[in-house]
Amino acid sequence: MTGKSIAPTALAIALTAVATTPSQAASPQEEANKALVLNMWRGVIDQHDDAAVMRYIAPDYIQHNTKLATGREALREAVRQLALPGALPHPAKVLVSAVADGDRVVLVWIREEPDANHPGAMVKFNRFDMFRIKDGLVVEHWDDSAPAR
Q: Could you tell me the maximum CA-CA distance found in the chain, to the nearest angstrom?
């Protein structure tokens, strides 16, 4: 065999080893952060619960979505608006994954939206929300639905 024929085989073996290496398990703190974010989502977004805003969101909460104001009080007001009779609901999303890395938790969703290229048709998009946790509270939020702040 020549070096040229071994190289692709070695590369394939190396890529297979990387692809099959188990990922590092989340730490207990990362698991706690994931649980906190999922509970926050259920209470704040799904149930429009003002008490959940107070329980899970830091007073100096930073909102990076430019369509929303920053701060816990601004989020409380947005949640109150969602709870009003006749208010447009938060877009329905199906959770695909929750991943924690240190003090950050990323939620990956699938959401159906109108297809801009085919009027009347719907298309599924992957969407995300990312949260930073500090001292057991959500202190920061990013998502993909608006220009960055």
A: 74
